């Protein structure tokens, strides 16, 4: 018996596809050995994030690439380097940061394409494999350190970095594959996707206390993967990419399922999303298996990470 009414169904539409000139046809990248063993991948898109001019940035994990897509849907290769870039967010001061599985937190100069180290370790210990990041209203960076953790090894971590003082706190270190993350409507708790745990956790955050009373915000439907990238709207509803079921779920601030946004493609790897477009009410979703950006109008504006300086 379901605890809630069934969610509404809505179809996403194709906004743009990666041009053929950028696709690495038939290649089996090194990144795929652990993540897509034996399968060729011409790309694997992640990290959608809009700049102030309405350009959409996306990463291509296995080939160390960052693309910028104009509002007219023209693709430009901004950077290509020896790395596995996953999450990407733009700070209020305009700096672009990347969670790179190989190297840690990196910084991207969009004018030159230079990708340089920003935070590669904590007290000389390297990260397991950072995955995604989010900026709080005060500019603090929150990021997940996923590596190959899962139900067999629930030791993934969530960090908070004070961008001014450089203080780095580990908020929680018992995570089965921490992935996307956002602050809730009140900015008092992190909502963290636990991909292999098939759930979204709620992790309270405090200025001086690491955390307490972390719990499950919502359980996911299960399947071959789980919760991935996430975004929040101004009403507090949470949008969660379901990386194995070809859809995005939206939940109310009380975790009631609202809408299931389904992919129109045959790909099932919905990895991340960002709000943008007219009125900031559209979600733009990376469907990584097909190298496609999907979109839908939610009717509600996305919640800004912070007030722009």
Q: What topology does this entry show?
A:
Layout: E1 8-11, E2 13-17, H1 32-35, E3 45-50, E4 56-60, E5 65-69, E6 75-80, E7 85-90, E8 96-100, E9 104-108, E10 115-119, E11 121-122, E12 125-126, E13 130-135, E14 141-145, E15 156-161, E16 168-175, E17 178-183, E18 189-194, E19 199-204, E20 215-219, E21 227-232, E22 238-242, E23 247-251, E24 257-262, E25 270-276, E26 282-287, E27 292-297
Parallel strand pairs: 1-24
Antiparallel strand pairs: 2-27, 3-4, 4-5, 5-6, 7-8, 8-9, 9-10, 11-12, 13-14, 14-15, 15-16, 17-18, 18-19, 19-20, 21-22, 22-23, 23-24, 25-26, 26-27
Q: How is this structure best summarized?
A:
By secondary structure, the protein is an all-beta fold. It is built from one helix and 27 strands. A hairpin with a 2-residue loop joins strand 11 (121-122) and strand 12.
How would you characterize this protein structure?
- With 309 residues, the chain is mainly β.
- It has one domain: TolB, C-terminal domain (Neuraminidase, 6 Propeller).
- The strands form 7 sheets. The protein has a 5-stranded mixed sheet, with no helix packed on it. A 4-stranded antiparallel sheet has the order 2-27-26-25, with no helix packed on it. The chain has a 4-stranded antiparallel sheet with strand order 3-4-5-6, with no helix packed on it.
- The relative contact order is 0.15.
- The model has no long low-confidence stretch (mean pLDDT 92).
- It is globular.
- Strand 13 and strand 14 form a beta hairpin.
- The chain contains 1 helix and 27 strands.
């Amino acid at each position: 018996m379901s605890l809630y009414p069934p969610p509404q169904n809505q179809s996403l539409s194709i906004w743009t596809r990666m041009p053929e000139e950028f696709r690495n046809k038939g290649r089996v990248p090194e990144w795929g050995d652990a993540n897509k063993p034996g399968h060729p991948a011409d790309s694997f898109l992640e990290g959608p994030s809009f700049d102030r001019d309405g350009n959409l940035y996306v990463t291509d994990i296995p080939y160390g690439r960052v693309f910028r897509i104009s509002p007219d849907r023209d693709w430009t290769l901004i950077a290509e380097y020896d790395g596995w870039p996953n999450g990407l967010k733009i700070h209020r001061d305009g700096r672009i940061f990347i969670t790179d599985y190989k190297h840690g937190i990196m910084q991207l100069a969009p004018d030159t394409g230079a990708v340089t180290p920003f935070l590669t370790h904590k007290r000389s210990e390297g990260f397991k494999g950072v995955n995604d990041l989010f900026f709080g209203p005060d500019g603090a960076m929150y990021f997940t350190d996923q590596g190959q953790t899962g139900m067999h090894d629930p030791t993934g971590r969530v960090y908070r970095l004070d961008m001014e003082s450089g203080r780095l706190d580990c908020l929680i270190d018992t995570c089965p594959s921490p992935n996307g993350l956002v602050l809730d409507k009140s900015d008092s708790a992190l909502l963290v996707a636990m991909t292999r745990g098939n759930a979204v956790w709620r992790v309270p955050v405090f200025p001086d206390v690491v955390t307490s009373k972390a719990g499950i915000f919502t359980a996911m439907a299960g399947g071959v993967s789980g919760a991935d990238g996430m975004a929040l709207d101004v009403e507090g509803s949470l949008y969660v990419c379901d990386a194995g079921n070809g859809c995005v779920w939206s939940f109310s601030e009380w975790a009631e399922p609202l809408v299931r946004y389904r992919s129109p493609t045959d790909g099932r790897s919905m990895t991340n999303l960002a709000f943008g477009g007219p009125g900031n009410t559209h979600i733009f979703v990376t469907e990584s298996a097909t190298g496609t950006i999907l979109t839908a109008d939610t009717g509600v504006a996305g919640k800004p990470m912070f007030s722009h300086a």
